[in-house]
Amino acid sequence: MQQDVLAISPHLDDAVLSAGGRLAALAADEQTWVTVYTVFAGPAAPPYSATAERLHGLMDLTGDPVQERRDEDLAAHAELGTIARHGRFLDSIYRTRADGSWLVGNDPTDEPDGDEPELHRSVTAAIGSLISELRPSIVLTCAALGDHVDHVRTRDAVLDAVSHHPGVRLQLWEDLPYGLWAGQGAPPSSLPHLAVLGEPFAAEVPAEALEAKYRAIACYRSQHRMLWDDDPDYRARLGRHQTANGGGERFWDVSLSRAGVR
């Protein structure tokens, strides 16, 4: 019996870092199609913010920064055996406020205040259309551990979209590497109203799937300096974390009110 799986990733690498082993294991089943849709993968044109320019330098992105990262993502998903689809929405480092000022200030670790209601509606609609098209039995997305604005926007839009599709199971993954930085067992921040988080569980990752995940992570060349500069042996770091999680990647089931979460 075929079961389609839809994973919704904030950025180009988040799904692989956090759930790549499970995605690879699911995709290894010929009866399962696994699609990974990255929300904030839209093309960005210069001029760029000072934050974006600094990050481009850190990532050694010298051409079209988003296209280079999209190419990395396609290579990563080829390793997993999953289907990559890229959204049109801009990463927070490329977005502006209504007054034209950059959403993220000079420090890329700063998180902007306030909601982006129009963005929420547009992302929710895009995800809802994808669910209607693919008819997945399960949707996976981030728990927004670490509260990165794009992760929160993604999670909340997925919750809202799935609430209008009865019968679709929803699970949230532990955002990595945020989970490494937050400490073992750290829970996500509170969810929107009428979304109830279940107990965490570890999804087992077979050895072959784990190797596919590591090969996929290696494809994200531009991200390695930013993610692993203090300890580039990400296999060991992720392996220790997975062992502490009970030998698998960490997820939560979510129950939703079908009236919506906002």
From TrEMBL:
InterPro entries with a match to the protein in the record:
GlcNAc_PI_deacetylase-related (IPR003737), LmbE-like_dom_sf (IPR024078)
Keywords attached to this entry = Zinc
Gene3D superfamilies xref list: LmbE-like
Q: Look up keyword Zinc and say if it applies.
A: yes
Keyword match Zinc: yes
PANTHER family cross-referenced by the UniProt entry: BLR3841 PROTEIN (PTHR12993:SF29), N-ACETYLGLUCOSAMINYL-PHOSPHATIDYLINOSITOL DE-N-ACETYLASE-RELATED (PTHR12993)
Q: State the name under which the record lists this protein.
A: PIG-L family deacetylase
Q: Which organism is it from?
A: Lentzea indica
